[in-house]
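Hi Q.,

Before the meeting this afternoon, I wanted you to have the zinc ion prediction in hand. No need to reply - just skim if you have a minute. The sequence and ligand are here:
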Amino acid sequence: MDTKLLFQDAAGFATPMLAVFAVDIATAVDADPLPALLSTSDAVTNAAAKVMASGEFKATLGETLLLHSPSGLKAERLLLVGLGKSKSLSVNEVRRGAGAAVRTAKPRGVLQVAIAFPEDHALSDEHLDELPCLLISRAVVEGALLANSDYDTYKSDRKDTALQTLSIVAKEAEKSTRTEIQQGFDEGLIVANAQNFTRSLVNEPGNVLTPTVLGERAAAMCEEVGLKCEVYSTEKLHELKMGAFWAVAQGSGEPPALIVMTYEPKLEKGKSLPKDAPVIGLVGKGITFDTGGISIKPAEGMEKMKYDMAGAAAMIGAMRAIAQLKPKVKVISVVCSAENMPDGRAFKPGDVVTAMSGKTIEIVNTDAEGRLVLADGLHYAKTLGCTHLIDAATLTGACVVALGMLNAGLFSNDDETCEKFQDAMKISGEKFWRLPCTEDYRDQINSQIADIRNTGGTRWGGATTAALFLKEFVGDTPWVHLDIAGCAWNDEVKPALAKGPTGIAVRSILEWVRSYSA
Ligand code: BES
Ligand code: ZN
Ligand code: ZN
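Predicted structure with the ligand bound:
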């Protein structure tokens, strides 16, 4: 897709479809909606005047209304896109609105779309808090690009309905504003392309995307963006004594992949980062298919377990964006990829394995495999010098029970680090809800015969006991754990997003990493 940013009056821009945002400025309780356009162009306002006054369009979030041959505009169609109440407007609504515009255009075969940059100053201050231009610009591009992806790769009769051109049309402005908008536009492209890359990996079926293929895809991406990438397998797991990771991998005919991607910031000549500068570790669960192993899962819904590598894919996508956004902080990503299969060689309930850290683990349930591969991945990241750790994993059904599909789980052993992550969420617009990760749950994973066991005694609090298991392997290193089991796959079409992989966590991880930039 061709993406352009132009500075001119949207009314004079010739395009098959021009999307313009609107908000509802009514504030009184039970008041009728009062839609107002986020445009200072008289021609645009005039073209929309009748329908805006008709009461047909209420400017609720994601609502769209399409007008053909709008008078006074060069566009063939004018699409009004609601962003909801003006008082609650943030960049997140802009992201969703831009997505809704693209998803309205695509099924109509309108593959060239222009979006008028939302002008918050079209309204008086009492209606709107000013939003930073850079973040608005970024959100428009992100929303549009994320909405542009559909997951029909394996359909023989697929028609390419991807947009051919996306133009963002912003009003002429002073240089500093133009620079900000341009920067947001450039960042938005990087971030959205990274998130879409993650989504394309998560979409792949388990027979196509084996651990080896995941390693190849990561290596190809690293080659493209100039990252160092090492992909290891069975031998390296044995060499590093990764007994927990290997336990999961040993039951599959497909060899595991240990993927290590490294980003070293390039500083100006003669400058270097201080000796005690943070080194960020991104660790991902990359189970390319989770049958549950010997503790096999029920058949119903098992096909979805191809997305059990979404945490790994999030880290690979985040690394892609990091390579392009170039924060001044070293980042190492460790991805632990394996297939969890029942087999003559598979690990069994009751087995005791020794993790790379030296801790012994009693296996109670082979379906609690994610925490095993992560235990070794987290410990290995520490040995590589990481001072701050984050992991992402489709780790527990319990987290889905607790939070549903709207919030992912957030756990941490350090408030300051966790708050930094929560600040990152304000920019990313992704939702994570902090759940407990305190020592009072620890005795639930005590084992009678080993140092620790891989599940809690009961089903209750399963997301927390899983987090506590991981905590045993990070020690005192500040660490954030993201349980994305409920949010990595979209079962329903959303106004701004196709069904299927969401790419959750890429944007937040990226912002969190950037917050450590020198
Ligand atoms: N991959 C699953 C978790 C999962 C569940 C992801 C639903 C996506 C949707 C994980 O490996 C698993 O099976 N966890 C078990 C742990 C249990 C055996 C302690 C679970 O949550 O049931
Ligand atoms: Zn499992
Ligand atoms: Zn799993």
